[in-house]
Fold this protein.
Amino acid sequence: MKLERIVLENFRQYYGQQKLNFARDRERNVTVIHGINGAGKTSLFLALNWCLYGRNVENIKVVDNVGELVSKEAINQAKPGDQVRASVTIAFLHNGHRYMVKRTLTGSKLLTGKLALNELDQFTMMRQGTSGRTEPVMNPLGTMNAILPVNAREYFFFDGEKIDNFSKPEASAQVKEAIYLVLKLEMLERSQRHLENTATNYRKELKQASGGELRELLEQDETLRQEREKAIKRKDELEKEKESAQRKVSEIDQKLRDSQNAKTLQQQRDRLEKDLKQRRIELMDLVEQIRERATSGYPILAQTAVQTALTILNEKRERGEIPSNIRQQFIQDLLDEMKCICGRPFAEHGPEHQQLLSLMQRSVPSSLEDDVLNTTATLTAFADKNHQQQALLSAHMRKRTELIDIIRDLDAELDDVSRQLKGSPLEEISRLEEQRRNFMSDIDGYSLEIGARLQKIEQAGKDISNLEKKIAAARKEEQRSQELSLKYDLAQKAADAITEMYQVHADNMREQIEARTKEIFRSLVWKESHFQDVQLGPDFNLEVIDRYGQSARPELSAGERQVLSLSFITAMAQVSEEEAPLVMDTPFGRLSSHHRNSITEKLPLLADQLILFVTDEELRDQARINLEKHIGAEYRLEFERTTSCTTIEEA
Amino acid sequence: MLKDRLKALFKSYDPVIRQVIYEVGEIEQQYISMEKPRGIMKDIDEIITRIAREELAQMSEKGDTSS
């Protein structure tokens, strides 16, 4: 990450639009921003943090207890009801892309003069690729975390006077966190842990997935198909043999027909067989009709209930509990005309008139009358239909019995013909009939066997069909298992690879940071001969060893602790090999001239980009001379006493 | 130097494993500021499922071509 520009609009004391371009040149990589106390250095530093991360990210506070962010002058200038807007825009470069981020806070001015802020600020991020095309970034917060995580920012954007934290004895957790975040070890560790958990879940799922079921089903399918094929083949053979036997019978019949002595009996048999064939077809049709009527005639079951209902209705009608089947309107018509149904007139108060009035009193409204009449009609029709069905079924059953009797008689007659032919005194005729009987017996045997085979083929077909469904389901399950198996393999191998990378990374980085911190620290402190060593132990304690081989950290001055921390941060940034700016607010306030001089001399060479917020007192004499050749941009924050606003002026 | 060593190690893995590491690492980095990021396991499962399906499709294509 390399900062390019910041534009502030109505942000704290920066009224209107104020902008600043950061130095990015490799040789002149330092931006100096001068300002006296209260001129707006910290506000500018705050603007940088707020723009990139907002007030807070999750539970990490970025901007806290700093008062109003919107320019008081902008609020003052606005009329009640006016919208007032504060925004900060930052342009920066990262990994070959140019990013522009803008955070805006809006509110409307109330009659009381205060500002009613909208709850959420608006954050947009645009990315310009190497092709020059600019597009919005869909996940700006995630992208910011990928560039410089919010919890790692404090190692690059820091208050110089509070920087000595790393060198305090209780800071080992902070040192470890800094290293883990900046060197992406945290990311590697989380990736490894989450991939390992994912692989465990896949392994559990795999165990539950059925194994070998498909193969078993396919074997069953193959066996069934083979058996069906065998049955079909045998059935075809039997049908051929049956046809052959039938041909033989036909030949014998023809011979008997041609024989003068057997002709009459054979012709009789032909007729009987033709008749028998016809009757058998009739019987088959009749049985089919009976079956249909029996299955569709379930309303017959309700016959008793229907009959009972009709009886109850009639009894109630006779007792006058429900209306008669004489309609109220019909009686009224007779009364109006004062005439009998036959057309004979009757006198008022006469017996006919009295009878009709009595009937009229007993009658009920026409709607209820209609309901009762309709129910009676429906039940009657239902009962009639059932009677018809029953009658038809009974007729069919009688016909069936008749047909069975006829068939039995025809069979008996055929047997008689056969017996007569067998008993013929002519040997040829008797022999032919004997052969015919044998062939007929064979045909019966074949028919039975064919029937059995057909049954087997049909059953096998049903079994295969069911099996096909099971195979399709098992195949789907097998595909899922195959996918699951690959997923497990990928997750586990990726987790193992990350473990390997992590070990290489973690083992080396601590040693490298230790060596680099020592080198930088010794180049910056003036008592380099006193401080013999800097150690970063496995427990991440940053330790300074003096010439006596003793821990010197408790004795370090505030300035020396600041130098140690700065050495550690710079070393970490260098080892990570990630391009990042060092933004330091009041970096030299607590430093003596010696440390100030050495830092201004060395730090521009150690950082990719250096941004310093300084007071004039911090940067003077030799320190100023040291930094001069590295300064690429220099600004002065001018505080206007009459408006309490600050402007950014190029120095 | 350390980065070069890591790059060399990374390159030694199967491309499909590299893809998983890269994509999972990218998503982890996006959630790095959260202590317990919600939904990250689901995101990781989606990444692995997608890559596995692509791999199976490729294997199937190769199988079809060779047969």
Residues 4 and 51 of chain B are 26 Å apart (CA to CA). The interface with chain A takes residues 2-3, 5-6, 9-10, 13-14, 16-17, 20-21, 24-26, 28-35, 40-41, 44-45, 48-49, 51-53, 55-56 of chain B (CB under 8 Å).
